[in-house]
């Protein structure tokens, strides 16, 4: 889902008289909203304030995400949530002029621009999750193209180098073991020997992969 932003971070308009503390994205009521990282539910807004029904999540790296104008909250204060877990449904509660999500991010109590991660509130990508795993604590708020480029380089170089070095180490061993298996079984039958050697290669490749 491509998210459509109707009000950017820091924007001043007729609706936002003071600089906007978050980002507004258009979402039809009832759209499932996800935690953008692993974290703990710090606060649940009951709907009595401007933000309407909402949630504040403290993420692993200490930043806090605020979700506002929900139709339904699916979590409780103190609950642990995982990256991508559904925490509520979008709506139009509180001081809101249409169905949308207000998403804000605080670091050390100050609002920061959440545009690089706002789409994660509605899109869950296991690939992103995989590449970010263990790195939540060091996330910087890059712009989206830089972020994608960074992830791409990291993933391509990292995986290729690992794969080649694994293969370089493993291939001589696989060859020796397969030849030994072949030689041993050849004493019984040459057909069994070929199957045995082939089986050893396949098995080894499956293991190192
Ligand atoms: Zn807003």
H/E topology pattern: EEEEEEEEEEHHH
Helicity, as a percent range: 25-40%
Q: Which CATH first-tier class of the largest domain would you pick?
A: Mainly Beta
Secondary structural class = alpha+beta
Number of helices: 3
Mean pLDDT comes to 83
Number of strands: 10
Distance between the termini: 33 Å
Question: Which structural traits does this protein have?
Answer:
binds zinc ion; 2 domains; ten-stranded antiparallel sheet; 209 residues; alpha+beta; single chain; 33% helix; Glucose Permease (Domain IIA); 3 helices
Structure characterization notes:
The chain is built from three helices and ten strands. The relative contact order is 0.13. Helix 2 runs antiparallel to helix 3. The chain has 209 residues and is an alpha+beta fold. It has helices at 126-132, 144-186, 190-208, and strands at 5-7, 22-26, 32-34, 39-46, 53-59, 64-73, 80-81, 86-90, 100-107, 110-112. Strands 1, 2, 3, 4, 5, 6, 7, 8, 9 and 10 form a ten-stranded antiparallel beta sheet that branches. The protein is 33% helix and 26% strand. Bound molecules: zinc ion. Zinc ion binds at residues 7, 20, 22, 24, 102.
Summary, kept brief:
With 209 residues, the chain is of the alpha+beta class. It has 3 helices and 10 strands. Mean pLDDT is 83; it is low at 134-143.
Secondary structure topology:
Elements: E1 5-7, E2 22-26, E3 32-34, E4 39-46, E5 53-59, E6 64-73, E7 80-81, E8 86-90, E9 100-107, E10 110-112, H1 126-132, H2 144-186, H3 190-208
Antiparallel strand pairs: 1-2, 2-9, 3-8, 4-5, 4-7, 5-6, 6-8, 6-9, 9-10
Helix pairs in contact: 2-3
The structure holds zinc ion.
